[in-house]
Structures are given as C-alpha cells and as structure tokens.
Amino acid sequence: MHETLSLLMPGDFPQLHRGQLETLQVNLGYLCNQSCLHCHVNAGPRRKEVMTDTTVDDVMRYLEASAVQTLDLTGGAPELNPGFRRLVSAARAAGTRVIDRCNLTVLLEPGQEGTAEFLSENKVEIVASLPCYLEENVDNQRGDGCFSASIRVLRLLNGLGYGRELPLNLMYNPQGPTLPPPQATLERDYKMHLADNYDVHFNGLLTLTNMPIKRFGSMLVSKGGFGDYINLLRDAHKDENLAGVMCRSLLSIDWEGYVYDCDFNQMLGLHTRVNGNTRLHITDLIGTDLAGNPIVVANHCYGCTAGQGSGCGGALEV
Q1: How, if at all, do strands 250-253 and 168-172 pair?
Q2: 159 or 317, which is more confident?
Q3: Within a domain: residue 160?
Q4: Are 24 and 261 within 8 A, CB to CB?
Q5: Which are the contacts of 53, defined by CB distance < 8 A and separation ≥ 6?
Q6: For 259, which DSSP code?
Q7: For range 183-199, the mean pLDDT
Q8: Is the preceding omega at residue 82 within 30 degrees of 0, hence cis?
Q9: pLDDT at 318
C-alpha cells in the first residue's frame, strides 16, 4: 500500500459521478530526466515503467472505437517513450486533439533532436511545467540549471510558433504546502517577467495544487505536516468546484493500460470500478459508456476543490 494512502482513506469527500467522457489521459511511463520535489508520480531517471508498443496499440484501438476528443499525454516525460511519436501521429491523423505535458528540459536530452519540430508540425498543444518564473525557485524545486534550460527550450518553441498560433501553456505548482495564488494575477506576473527578462512568450498559465501523494506526500509525512495540509485543503473546499473537477470527463490510463478516474488515483492504485469490477484494462472498456459511473474518491480529492479549484486544466475559478 502507498505510504500515504492509509492517511487518505477512508475519507469524507462527497461522492461524484462521471459525465460524458471527453479526455483520455495516458501516462506513457514514469521515466523522466528530472526528479522534482513536488512530483506526485515519483518520476525520475531510474524508473523502469514504460508503456510497451502493445499497450500503445491498445490505446490506439480505444481511441478509434470511442468518441474521445482529446488525448492528453503525460508521464514522467512522455517524449521518452519510444512509441510517443507513433501515438501522436495516429491521433492527429484521426483528428484528435493532442496535449503533450512537457517538462521542457527533456527536449534537450540525447535522442530528442527534432521532437520540438515534430510537435509543431503535428500541431500538438504543449502544457509545459515551469513551477515559478524565478530562477532560484525553479532550480530549488527541479535541480540546478533547470531554469536556464527551460528558458532555452521556451525560446526554441517560440521560434516554432508556440505561444502564438500554436498553444503553449505553462503549469505552476506552489513551492510547498500552500494553495496556489489567483491564477489570473499570477499569469500576468509570469508573462511580464518572462517577456521583459527573457523575451519568452506563452498563451496562458495553469495553476495546480500540490497533491499529498508520492514524493510530495512523503515529504509532508517526513516533516510532520501531512495532517495540517489535508486540513488546509478540506477547510478551503468549495462545493461549487465539484461540477468542474476533471474526473467527471477524463479517464486516466497507466503505463500498463489499466484504468483510473484520474492521474492522482492512478498514483494511489485506486482503480476505476465498473459494475463491481476493478483493475480494468483499457481494452475492457471498448464499447462501454461510463456516464453515471461512480468516481473513486478519497481525502486527496480536496486538492481539486480547495480555493479556486485545481486540475490538469488549471484553476476551476478564473
């Protein structure tokens, strides 16, 4: 059992049910060139979990058989998966919107030559993690030199049309166990600082609340702050945010092809339940309508409804 799961369950979060499925979020593996302190995946260079070609084929079969509008690729660093380009190309050829959740610096890794150009040629939307616009804060959270490398990649992407005709959004995470500041205000600060100091431009900023699971959850436990953080999230809960949480319209797939209600549940091993069945594979769901299905919830879900709300699309209140 995950080290923090026993602290999250049982919970008192309100029961939720699925609406129409719009987004398939696929985790292509936990391998990453970075080991960020806030990572809820525990991703890093030593992780061996990488989606196989067979499972990539399964994902493509599901996309062909479903009415999913958006393929959201994440990791780890999804670009490190050998099947990344094949999956992107197939989805785009079918007219599916594709999002690449990119940590930026991966595009400078050996073997990634041409990946930025591939993304632009296929009109892939990029959500790029940049947890602050200040160099010291980013390097403290992600490692020395990560900020300068990220700026280098952002300039490369700008040169390919990202931030103008191609969507480039940045993702912000708080430095510690606090809620994100108002998204619109922080976006203005980001845009001004990055443009004035680095001639870097992007479309929008998405704020994401740190989830008390995996690496960030372990840090909270080690410092004795886990309970305080859960109480912070619970006390800031707003019922009006329940309607917009991402799990109502998103399905999360792990590197082996198994199904979860969201990426956070995936990291906790909380499988989607359909008619009493758990540990369902994506191939089990071909032809299945999940609308109305109950969503598996626990106390970490307060991270999505606290304050302005939070999810893979940023704040729920803007």
Answers
A1: unpaired
A2: 159
A3: yes
A4: no
A5: 82, 83
A6: E
A7: 97
A8: no
A9: 57
Handedness of CA 7, 13, 15, 19 (dihedral sign): negative
Residue 294's CB is within 10 A of a number of other CB atoms, namely: 13
Sequential DSSP letters for 34-64: ---TT-SS--BTT---B--HHHHHHHHHHHH
Do the domain assignments include residue 317? Answer: no
What is the residue range of 232's domain? 5-305
The answer to whether residues 98 and 92 touch, using CB atoms and an 8 Å cutoff, is yes
pLDDT tens for 151-183 read 999 999 999 999 999 999 999 988 889 999 999
In the structure encoding, which two tokens stand for residue 18, read together? 């699925």
Kindly report the CATH number assigned to the domain that includes residue 120.
Answer: 3.20.20
The answer to whether residue 108 sits within a structural domain is yes
Tens digit of pLDDT for each residue in 29-40?
999 887 665 566
Domain count, the chain: 1
**On the CB side of 222, how many CA atoms lie within 13 Å of its CA?**
7
Helix/strand/coil for 16: strand
- In the predicted model, what is the mean pLDDT of residues 226-241? 95
Tell me whether residue 110 is in a domain: yes
In sequence order, which ranges of 114-235 are alpha helices (DSSP H)?
115-121, 135-142, 146-159, 183-198, 214-222, 226-235
User: What are 260's strand-pairing partners?
Assistant: 252, 271
What is the rounded CA–CA span in Å between residue 171 and residue 102? 10
Judge whether 282 and 64 are in contact, CB under 8 Å.
Answer: no
Largest CA distance in the chain: 55
Across 7-87, where does the E strand assignment appear? Answer: 16-17, 23-27, 70-74
pLDDT tens digits, one per residue of 3-28: 566 677 767 899 999 999 999 999 99
